[in-house]
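[recover] target loaded
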């Protein structure tokens, strides 16, 4: 998907054929074996990856995913999208991504810590505050980032908070980072609603994936008056056309570790949830959810891509024939996370920390600019919002490579 998107944009930008691989292929891709002593005394070997897409504009940046379906190809695609996302939002980074093929829900806290520390140990020659700075993604959280920071710091002999972002605030994390991706999604949805003339009060939203991104987006939108009518997780979904009580839902999820079984809602499958009528549809879980098979049948006005890569190129072709749907593409829609990660990194390097108001103000200003530039190109050149966002990101990296002399 990432390569197909790149090739279309490269044609539009007239990037010479013989130089396209320079932009497309990752600079480095690392596969590691991670032996972990399990609680029952056995040893299990997990496979982990870290892909750094380009280092032309600064260190590489991107999350680490713990999920059973992680593959090297997926991580490479996610690293490429990180590059275009950072360039679109003007951050001084190349893209990276990491992943470990495991099911974090089935590991004890001790097993998870040993796995994280051993994975970090394997990455140590390749990461660093000026080289590659990991962050959370699906299946990882602040605690995992704290273990990464601790493992790295023990190795080099002093405390290095700038090695990861998305850490607990008490260890040099930034105020607002935990909520930043979901808040950014909600900010851009409200910009899209303004643009389309949809009043927030009474609008409805359906969210696939009620994790960090999905749950914060839900709360932020509900504060604007939007009714959240359906949400889901890996176990299934729930639906209430009158709107879900999010306070009660969050208490239920904290206790039961799933949205499934929440009272005052009917159950719905993840596939059915995507087809529910709503004003705003937010995929906030895995890639390839809106496909050639279901794209013609989704019933929203705004498709806000909280997840990375939720829409396949086949679906994009179908959606291009549906002017009734406004897409906020992933590299724009979920960029709030990496933007506040950038703020966290800057604060760590300076050992000087900002208030939450300052973080949010700077976040919304960057989102506003990226939304404005993408929307302008979309209108001016008659290209989709995704194409416009990718073009802006790819063009900036391409220009930087040319200015540096193409081979850095
Ligand atoms: N955490 C962050 O700061 C950022 C995350 N993202 C993207 O947002 C998406 C979600 O990430 P997080 O919220 O951080 O992860 P998370 O691990 O906090 O939550 C993921 C949610 O998706 C659910 N899920 C997993 N498989 C599913 C499936 N097959 N169908 C439906 N739901 C499923 C999980 O049960 C969980 O509720 C991912 O695509 C990630 O790459 C993008 C930018 C930043
Ligand atoms: O915060 C970061 O550095 C990266 C977050 C991430 O993985 C993403 O934007 O997909």
């Amino acid at each position: 998907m990432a390569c197909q998107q790149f090739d279309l944009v490269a044609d539009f930008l007239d990037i010479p054929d013989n130089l396209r691989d320079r932009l497309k292929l990752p600079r480095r891709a690392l596969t590691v074996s991670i032996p972990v002593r399990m609680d029952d005394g056995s040893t299990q070997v997990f496979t982990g990856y870290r892909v750094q897409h380009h280092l032309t504009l600064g260190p590489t940046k991107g999350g680490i995913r713990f999920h059973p379906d992680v593959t090297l190809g997926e991580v490479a695609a996610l690293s490429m999208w990180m590059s275009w996302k950072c360039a679109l939002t003007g951050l001084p980074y190349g893209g990276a991504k990491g992943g470990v093929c495991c099911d974090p829900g089935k590991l004890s806290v001790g097993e998870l810590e040993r796995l994280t520390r051993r994975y970090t140990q394997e990455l140590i020659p390749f990461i660093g505050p000026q080289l590659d700075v990991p962050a959370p993604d699906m299946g990882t959280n602040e605690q995992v980032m704290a273990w990464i920071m601790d493992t790295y710091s023990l190795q080099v002999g002093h405390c290095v908070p700038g090695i990861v972002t998305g850490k607990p605030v008490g260890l040099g994390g930034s105020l607002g980072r935990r909520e930043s991706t979901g808040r950014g999604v909600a900010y851009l949805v409200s910009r899209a609603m303004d643009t389309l003339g949809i009043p927030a009060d009474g609008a409805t939203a359906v969210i696939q994936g009620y994790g960090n991104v999905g749950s914060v987006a839900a709360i932020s939108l509900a504060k604007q008056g939007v009714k959240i009518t359906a949400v889901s997780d890996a176990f299934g979904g729930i639906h209430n056309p009158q709107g879900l009580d999010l306070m009660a839902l969050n208490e239920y999820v904290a206790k039961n570790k799933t949205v499934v079984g929440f009272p005052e809602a009917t159950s719905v499958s993840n596939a059915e949830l995507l087809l529910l009528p709503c004003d705003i549809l937010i995929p906030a879980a895995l890639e390839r959810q809106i496909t050639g098979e279901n794209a013609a049948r989704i019933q929203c006005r705004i498709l806000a891509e909280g997840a990375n890569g939720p829409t396949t190129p086949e679906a994009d072709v179908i959606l291009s024939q549906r002017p009734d749907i406004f897409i906020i593409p992933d590299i724009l829609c979920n960029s709030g996370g990496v933007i506040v990660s950038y703020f966290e990194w800057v604060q760590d390097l300076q050992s000087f920390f900002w208030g939450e108001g300052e973080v949010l103000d700077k976040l919304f200003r960057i989102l506003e600019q990226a939304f404005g530039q993408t929307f302008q190109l979309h209108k001016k050149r008659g290209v989709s919002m995704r194409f416009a966002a990718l073009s802006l990101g790819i063009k900036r990296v391409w220009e930087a490579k040319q200015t540096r002399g193409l081979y850095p």
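[recover] notes: The chain has a mean pLDDT of 97.
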